[in-house]
What we know:
Layout: H1 3-32, H2 43-46, H3 50-53, H4 57-67, E1 68-70, H5 72-90, H6 103-137, H7 148-160, E2 165-167
Antiparallel strand pairs: 1-2
Amino acid sequence: MSAMDKVHVLARIGLVLLRIQAVENVILLCLTFVFKNSTKQWDKLHAKDEATRKQTLGFFLTELRKRVELNKSFDKDLESFLSMRNTFVHRLSDVPGWDVETQAGLMAAHKFLTELDDTTDHVGKVFHAFVRLWENHNGIENTDSDHPYFKDVDETYLKILPTFFSPKVDE
């Protein structure tokens, strides 16, 4: 094991945490504005009361399921994201082989972080595609269209968005 391998994994932990937080924020944004068809000011999102900000990701996914029908495959993606996110945040020791002191443990850490990062990227792009639609509908200009992440959202995810969600049908 080299010291650089360990530093790389520890740095990746920080990057993945930031990406997870960004996805949690875009999910909250969608629940607050997009799926309510609201044109409220963006600043209202950050002014939400402390109780709302402390709600769990699982709570927000349950709320999402109340508002839209999810494709079964994407629902599994969300469950995987939630499970892996919770393991990452609360129980890294539950990851088989996780150990930052051995080469095998670093490989296990790298494998888990790669899978979590890929899932986080996918889930984030789906929700960002909804934000793009909402922005376009409400005349909000996109200023980050040249960023590779948002190019993928715009060129790929917007086209396949209907395969992930559909309007909730009243029973």
